[in-house]
Amino acid sequence: MSFLTIEDVSYSYQGKKPVIDEVNWKMEKGEFHCLLGKSGCGKTTLLKLAAGLLPSDKGRIILQGKEVVKPSPECGFVFQSPTLLEWKSVIDNVLLPVTLKRKRTKEDWNEAMELLELVGLSAYHDRYPSELSGGQQSRVAIARALVQKPSLLFLDEPFAALDAITREELQDDLLRMCSIHNTTVLFITHDLSEAVYLADVVAVMDKGEIVFQSRVELERPRTMKMRYDPYFNELCLTLRQVMGGERV
Amino acid sequence: MKKMPLYSFLLLILLLVIWEMAAGTMSELVLPAPSVIGFTLFDGIKSGYFTEHIIRTLSEVLLGLLFGGLSGFLIGILMGEITFLRKLLFPYIIASQAVPKLALAPLFILWFGFGMTSKVVITALVCFFPLLESTVTAIQSSDKQKQELFTMLGASRLQTLVHLKIPAGMPGILAGLRVSVVLAVVGAVVGEFIGGSEGLGALIIASQGMMDTPLMFATLILLTGIGMILYQMINLFEKKWSKPYKKES
Asked: Which of B149, B167, B248 faces A131 most closely, judged by CB atoms?
């Protein structure tokens, strides 16, 4: 039994042509999967379906043997924009998931500080989001998603608005943090090298279907050098061709 | 730009001087000089002549603001949250917006008498709509992704409202409150115009009857002062509330 199974899932917006058309997908515990696709191919919809934010029209989504009908507390979600609450300080933002469930304790605070330490922002814990740069805001958003130690993490192009170098730093941060708790990750992006660098498995979506998938045979931990490896580039080229419309 | 407050103040002095000179050429009945008005104002405050009127008008304004504002805010939240209610009530809201509410003042005096109640009702009615409208808009316009974040975190509807929609909508709600505060003074004064012997509005009518123009001007200054103080209080509250996260210049 897989950790997360997506079975024949379809979804359409108000009776129009399906955005997601009978997609099947399987993820094992601790794996990092990247979904690639052009804008409007339905990848965000698929992610929301998997997270239980949208109800599927057909098919089912099974997380650890249980069908997903609403967002599970075991899942974290990072959105395209950092979605921090401007009126709360960084530490309060990270602790938001806890605050909504119960009274927060000293231990919660310490854990949140550890997470901020991991993303290099512990010195900024009492600042407000407007005082941070875009990259720092994304880091806080990731720390917030991880504060409840989710076993499954969904990310929807979280680094799309960042510059290349910051993006690479954040990719390393993310990989490091997810490997600590053996978090399973479903990551959406339109950036080829980002997908190959992060993932154990990459898949390409087009018009609501998964048209290509491949394992990434690179060692972990991933290093900067691998980005210039011939294998890395070849895989990027293949993915590029698939995304350009050529079926392999 | 640091000297701007000073320049504003100098302009005030200049205007007062021009006024003083212009008043010298006219009858006091038409345009009393600032010095005469100042004397009347100071004298009235010292002797306690204004005190009861100020208290009366201020309590009407504050009570009206409390009832009107609070109900506008609460109904605004309900209408912002419950689509059914919003669609049901919206035609009536638009219709009632078109009614000149101050024109209802005589009716309220008929219903609630010449006492304070009728004035509080008028004031409350005038305060109600700006806050209702701004609250409905503010509650509805909160960020979709943030709402999804709260769904993802398993937040209840009430939690989403308290932790997301109300704080996120605060600037809009406070803008509505600012409009309400200024209108509240208008509401109370118009109420007093129509019926009543107490309050600054009644005092204006009385000074007209007595042909005491300096007293009328002094009362106007007091009313302006009340309006400005209330407005500044809202501003101060807004600054204090939003200071932490609006530091970027």
From this structure: B248
